[in-house]
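User: Hello, can you help with two protein structures?

Assistant: Certainly.
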Amino acid sequence: MEKMTKYKLLFIGDSITDVGRNRNNPDSLGKGYVAMIAKALEDRGDSEHYQLINRGISGNRIHDIAERWHSDCVSLEPDVVTMLIGINDTWHNVGDESVFATKEGTEQFEMHYRHLLASLRKKSDARLILMEPFVFPYPEDRKTWRIDLDPKQEIVKRLAEEFDADWIGLDAYLNEIGAVEGYETLSNDGVHPTKKGHRLIADAWLKQFDEGGKE
């Protein structure tokens, strides 16, 4: 009997994607939204069609993704690539006036991001799903991050259009829910999602994945 070929769904990013995955086990999905997506696909009887791959690494910025893009993305020949990156690029800039909210910092982010997408497009027709980096206004000081993060969000959305990628606007989606239900229910530090926050990200991804087609 011929073995069924599974579509490879690759997720790459920072700690929001990593969520404690075992990096010694290439099949480890962590304990966040990627694992929740896998469970949802299993529950609806679709798990036999897909192989999920988590390549999130805590603390990563866009240049870190660039350094491992070939080994952790291109060489794996994924059918769908989902990327969520950017909040650490802002977080590391906080307090550094030379890069925080500067034109140069924004341009560097866009240059790296565009290079990643262009290099993948040259070698693959994989479907791209770009998820917008987000921050909650909790604790209070996180509000000041927006001046640096907002331009990066605009870049992700613009590049999604330029490279014919799916775009998931997580920031507005999550903040609207947080405003009603309490930001602390979605994140303890304004950045890392709670279990409920991860569930919302998984739901948003599944909705976009289904609406955009499975191939």
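That covers the first. Now for the second protein you mentioned:
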Amino acid sequence: MPHLPDHLVAGYRNFMNGRYLTESGRYRDLAREGQAPETMIVACCDSRSAPEAIFDAGPGELFVLRNVGNLVPPYEPDGEFHSTSAALEFAVQSLKVKNIVVMGHGRCGGIRAALDTTSAPLSPGDFIGKWMSLIAPAAETVASSTLMTATERQTALERISIRYSIANLRTFPCVSILEGKGRLSLHGAWFDISTGELWVMNKETGDFERPVLE
């Protein structure tokens, strides 16, 4: 029984003979000096929407947090376990990132689960259902719309959830204080897996627009 799947070993071999070979100096500097990324990305776990690939980022450039549905919960210092909040706290307070980007994507399974209230939980714990209940009010409103197709409802909630997460980010004192001082900027983005298009949220209107690529 191999210790790792063969395709992972093969991928690591390619990494060592390719990217690491050309960026070994950068990796050594990061190991010695530590990381200092300017941007945190809150993205979905979905294997098709990796931020490092989409933004062509090198080692040490992005601090990436991935969870189901790219959600940020509200600030709740209740003594429970909060992995997303812990990563956010570390990025803002220790790494002192300058930007936080919440990036959703098309065809998100978590968003689909939030819209579909008829399916049985995947396990008795229903961890996904509980997690996606963070956007339950929006999901109920969107799901009840008969004027949109299923695909339109999915895309609508994917984008609305990004605005929800940004609003929840502002419930964290460390975020709201720094944003107020102009030392931290919050952004929203949505990635279309099928076309590769990236849509960026307009901070004033909340609409999603295509960035101009020169």
